[in-house]
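Why do we bother with holo predictions? Because pocket geometry can differ from the apo form. Keep that in mind while you read this record for NAP.
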Amino acid sequence: MNVVITGGNRGIGLALAKQYLARGAKVFVTCRNACDDLNKLPVTVVKGVDVSNPDMLADTLMPLLSTKIDLLINNAGVLGREGVEDWDPNTIDYQFRVNALGPLLVTQILLPALATNAKIAMITSRMGSMEDNTSGGYYGYRMSKAALNAVGVSLANDLKPKGIAVGLFHPGFVQTDMVNGNGDIDADTSASRLVSRIDELTLKNTGSFVHSNGELLPW
Ligand SMILES: NC(=O)c1ccc[n+]([C@@H]2O[C@H](COP(=O)([O-])OP(=O)(O)OC[C@H]3O[C@@H](n4cnc5c(N)ncnc54)[C@H](OP(=O)(O)O)[C@@H]3O)[C@@H](O)[C@H]2O)c1
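The structure, written out:
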């Protein structure tokens, strides 16, 4: 099984790489810059992949086009913390480019390399849910993850005839750099749960929005 993970140099992406390695998968990790933790692993590292940069993505992802990809995990993401009176169009635009446009572009570029019956996992957030938003704020993050959810549902519809299932997964509140080490669970626990959810992803439940604990999330 060949697995591609974006943003796999730390946090949940790195933990996912370890989980799939432990299962005997061949793992390809894309990152902007590698690090010791990643270099220690027996994975193929594809460096220089900035998902916010549409002009360079096709070139930097080129090494992956010769691989038959069974699972693509769009994990790379950024979190801004805008308040209603304190936000900047540039940071919101950047979150859109990383969190929503990036996964769409990566998927489009790697589509020719996806195996028949491949799966695509989008690591989204419940913060992109309308119904679940009871606390406000986080304008760029919420908007960009809601946009990612729209991307995931369209891809699920468009790729179903090709036998490709697409899942939208909230990893939980996870102790990574993104949330300054706060969170309810560590990255290994989140990754292990995500692997189980990805195992359950089929063409029957393609396009669903699921918490790593198995709960179906409201849009
Ligand atoms: N932690 C949580 O509680 C939580 C909750 C809900 C959803 N999520 C989602 O889970 C995913 C992983 O987050 P995490 O918690 O593991 O955060 P993290 O530790 O901050 O890791 C984020 C990863 O995304 C990469 N990344 C950021 N901008 C990028 C860009 N422009 N191009 C390529 N890679 C980029 C980072 O690479 P660099 O080292 O190059 O910056 C890093 O590998 C994200 O999509 C996040 O939104 C996390």
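The chain has one domain: 2-211.
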